[in-house]
């Protein structure tokens, strides 16, 4: 059976996964999966339904039936545009809490694999290479220092005219990194067969070029 090729891009928060994955997908004409948005949508759905984030059965039920759609760069939950609502610090932390629940991860697995379509898929997250697409044609682990990543988030917030505190951002990011790396299922870590790209000193164009070079080596 011939399956569409996958480029898996994993890494911690604000390493540049989303930006780089979208650009690589556009360059190759591939589909794009932002797997983190599914965990964010699950957390938002739980908060809105009054389901506790540690209620594994309740949260997994919501994850399995998420009425999510992705339309022209916007993210909808039923008819509600939640593109911005899923990016708050509260929902970021909530996403990493529900992401630690094995039943929730299992409930989202088939939905993620359904994005694999021709001519190919670029998928970003934490476990794209390890669990969701272990047969990916190219595996990239994007990282950057915690300080560089907190500064990127800071600049993103300031650019949107939103309040930002560098110290709080760094602390939130390190807490989320720790929770994601220490959980027992699908922890954040570099796979043996993934290529490490440290974007600390790289601009976006340079990070995209570094990933494209890895992709080209696989003749994709
Ligand atoms: O998806 P992830 O959380 O890994 O990161 P992102 O949302 O793609 O990137 C976070 C921010 O860092 C965005 O504003 C990017 O434009 C910026 N960025 C950067 O300044 N330099 C890079 N090499 C990569 C991303
Ligand atoms: O953009 P950023 O890297 O900050 O976050 P994200 O990729 O949207 O993911 C939000 C949270 O969802 C992460 O902190 C992880 O806990 C979880 N996640 C996961 O467990 N597995 C994935 N494949 C993607 C996200």
From TrEMBL:
ATP binds at residues 11-19. Residues 7-216 form the Cytidylate kinase domain. Catalyzes the transfer of the enolpyruvyl moiety of phosphoenolpyruvate (PEP) to the 5-hydroxyl of shikimate-3-phosphate (S3P) to produce enolpyruvyl shikimate-3-phosphate and inorganic phosphate. It is found in: Cytoplasm. This is Multifunctional fusion protein. Monomer. It comes from the Bacteria. Belongs to the EPSP synthase family. Belongs to the cytidylate kinase family. Type 1 subfamily.
